[in-house]
Amino acid sequence: MAFLQEYTMLEELGKGGFATVYKVRHDELGYIRAIRVLNETIVDTSSKTYQKFLRECKVLLRLGNGSHPNIVHIYQPRLLDNKALVEMDYVDGLDLEHYLQRERQFIPAEEVIRMATQISSALSYCHEDIYRYCMDRDIDNLQDDPNDGSKVILDDPTRRRLIDKYKVIHNDLHSGNIMRRENGDFVLLDFGLAINGDEVVRSSRHTNGAPEFKSPEKWNDDSVLSEQSDIYSFGIVMYQYLAGMPPFPYNTSVSSHIAEYQIAEAHQNTPPPPIAKTRKDFYERKNAGKKYVKDYPQWLEEMILKCLNKKPDERFRNGKELHDFILQHTTKNAATPQPEPTPKAQASDPTLLSKIDALHRENTSLKQQLNDDRKTLTATQNDLQAAKTDIFKLQNIINTLSAQLKKNKKNRILHRFLLMLALTATMCCVLLIWHSAADSPRSTKELQEKLEQKQETTVPVEQQENSNSNQTP
Questions:
Q1: Please, is 96 exposed, middle or buried when counting C-beta atoms within 10 Å of its C-beta (0-12, 13-18, 19+)?
Q2: How far, in Å, CA of 66 to CA of 61, rounded?
Q3: How many domains does the chain have?
Q4: Domain end: 270, 304, 335, which one?
Q5: N or C: which end of the chain has fewer CB within 10 A?
Q6: Are residues 12 and 118 in the same domain?
Q7: Which residues neighbour 411 within 8 Å (Cβ) at sequence distance 6 or greater?
Q8: What angle (nearest 5°) sits at the alpha carbon of residue 88, between those of residues 168 and 119?
């Protein structure tokens, strides 16, 4: 392969009747890309094959003006050693057809919606938004905005004229032309049959394309192909990605003429089979023993069925309208506040377990100290009660002696002596009680306040312990 002298070929990614795609690394600059090389040797640059190649490159290069993330990017086409080739971004992943096979024909609903969102965004760009990146003041005869010379006047007629001029109809949408990257994003490929703007549609554009994805009008050479033909084909892609298979599969048990006739009749006259039943069959086949429960929103199915309407005028008008419909539902759902999940402790979390253990130890220590303080308070109260009893008894003795001495007025000296003795004894008892209370670890009031404080501390700890235990599975 002399034409690959600038590259090291890493892998052959795919080969068709028109071109072969390789994964390569540029020898001098070191970047990795894919290159698409025409199978036919180009001797005459005016040949039909080469002009078709250039035309596709022109469409993709124009689409690249807006750098849409869901459309493959290509670089300048070249002719080396009579081989036409073009570099493009290397997309790591699988096309939807092969990815479905790998996943055994069942894809989570969230991914189906993500694919629909991203590829409808690509179609919105192709069908409408591209004019913003292609319009030219002079060529398109645009009038300057008198209030801002950096802008042009874009009234509705002017905008419609620009859209019709620059829009791109893909014209070959099927699951083999959409790549799923390893990171879960999606990229639209292969614009070889694309219709650019007001270009005249040749009858050959109708016959080309995958039969399972062709819109009803594409089976009629006299019909007009529009953006709504892309909408129908993309509806088949979405149906296949959600249900697990296209609504009208190709019958390989009969001749190709009969198979295509059957598909044409189905696309034009037969309603698509219910999605839920087919999806259920693939789910239960993939997940043995499990019962399928509908897992996708109703609006998604209604959107797909609208895309698959037999009459173009009853489908979405273009990719822009389809994409806005999807955003309306996905944004509305995302904006709905969801209740915060209750955090649950995991038994295997060592940090949480250590905190729980420390809490238990602290609570046990507080309970023990509380019990000790209660015992100390009880002992002190008993001592005080005993002292009060002794004082009461001594007071009774003094009163008795005093009464007897009053009767014996002759012995006044003895009376005074006994009275002084009684007063001295009373003072000693009072001092003894005061000293005992002062030497106590804490007064009755202090102990009572300490008990109340510890009880208030213990209750929240126990409540916190119960709360943590409720959170632990």
A1: buried
A2: 10
A3: 3
A4: 335
A5: C
A6: no
A7: 405
A8: 45
β-strand pairing of 144-145 with 93-95: unpaired
Tokens of 73: 């990017």
Rounded to the nearest 10 degrees, the angle between the axes of helix 227-243 and helix 319-335 is 40
**DSSP string of 285-343, one letter each residue:** HHSTTPPP---S-HHHHHHHHHHT-SSGGGS-SSHHHHHHHHHHHHHHHHHS--PPPPP
Q: Are residues 326 and 213 part of one domain?
A: yes
pLDDT at position 347 is 41
Can you give the pLDDT at residue 346?
42
- Residue-wise pLDDT for 167-208, tens only, equals 999 999 999 999 999 999 999 998 888 888 766 554 444 456
Query: Do both 85 and 108 map to the same domain?
Result: no
Task: Supply the pLDDT for residue 118.
Answer: 97
Domain boundary among 284, 312, 335: 335
Rounded Cα distance between 21 and 23, Å, is: 7
- Residue 389 CA to residue 387 CA, distance in Å, equals 5
Are 386 and 313 contained in the same domain? no
**Residue 55 structure tokens:** 């035309």
What's the pLDDT at 87?
A: 93
Question: How many CB atoms sit inside 10 A of residue 454's CB?
Answer: 16
Of residues 162, 171, 164, 87, the one with CA closest to residue 123: 171
Please state, in angstroms and rounded to a whole number, the distance separating the CA atoms of residues 146 and 144.
6
Q: Which residues of the chain have pLDDT under 50?
A: 202-206, 336-349, 441-442, 459-462, 464-473
Task: Please give the pLDDT value at position 452.
Answer: 62
For 327, the domain range is 92-130+167-335
Exposed/middle/buried for residue 238 (C-beta within 10 Å: 0-12, 13-18, 19+): buried
Contact (Cβ atoms closer than 8 angstroms) between residue 19 and residue 11: no
**CATH code of the domain covering residue 75:** 3.30.200.20
Chain position carrying tokens 């129908």: 232
Residue 272, domain member (yes or no):
yes
How far is it, in rounded angstroms, from Cα 411 to Cα 407? Answer: 9
User: Residue 115: CB partners within 8 Å, gap ≥ 6?
Assistant: 96, 178, 180, 186, 238, 241
CA distance 337 to 209: 44
